[in-house]
Amino acid sequence: MHPAIDKLLETASTVILGKHHQIRLAVCCLLSRGHLLIEDVPGVGKTILSHTLANLLGLNYQRIQFTSDLLPADIVGSSIYDANSHSFRFQAGPIFHQMILADEINRSTPKAQSALLEAMEEHQVTIDGETRPLPEPFFVIATQNPNYQIGTFPLPESQLDRFLMRITMGYPDSRSERALLRGEARLALLGRLPVCLEASELKKIQEDINQIFVSDPLLDYLQALIRYTRESADYQSGLSPRAGLALLNAARAWAFLEGRDAVLPEDVQVVLPPVAGHRLKLAASAETDSQTTVFPLLERVPIP
Length: 304
Prior knowledge:
Structural class: alpha/beta
Shape: globular
Oligomer: single chain
CATH topology of the largest domain: Rossmann fold
Low-confidence stretches: none
CATH architecture of the largest domain: 3-Layer(aba) Sandwich
Mean pLDDT: 87
Largest sheet: 5 strands, parallel
Number of helices: 14
Number of domains: 2
CATH superfamily of the largest domain: P-loop containing nucleotide triphosphate hydrolases
CATH class of the largest domain: Alpha Beta
Strand content: 5-15%
């Protein structure tokens, strides 16, 4: 593994206690050039995780608090009339930062949620007929509360599909919670975090990850997983080609984190729940967690 990534993971674990796997998945998602959705109840560290990653990566960072009265212009910006020049001047919105925290995204209306679609997919926004590029690298980390809570608007499938991964934080174990209770406030720790990886280094690592070897048998396994979701009665609908690419990119990044230069089936299996869990729905069940959703895939699709 790259020494800077190793340091980043180690440092992040001193702030987010007892969540090594979630931190690795979040870093894996960013290395894959993907956007991350963190779904859980309030107060388990969703916002702190995004702050931590932004500080350690040295990215300029902006938090957008999604509420029911948020407008698309509050996200992307708007044109303001300048009385001195007798012309309109574009005032950029918070979307023009390298890392965006869309906090409690499902508390805003679908109209505000959709303002992120073009930005997340194409790394650009179109305002008043003019297309404006977003900075590189560009990441969105969104948090959302469970849909059963009051005042939430569930994200539509098209919006969910823009997120490469969806993870949950979960409650800390007893030992980590004791350390959290006795330790320093997390916000105070954030101010002292070192920058472990510059933006230029991050781009170079992302390019290196694209070169990680993927064998034909591995692609056979990947296609078998995708085909099963489309043909099996277990699921309402199958994974799209975009989901297949997301799974491959995430598996490459996970192999990199494991210090290997080739993807193994185990890499695909590790990233399958966060990548496919929010894209699939079981045919005859209520809402389930990602691990339960992908269980038929892991059980019934053999490794070539």
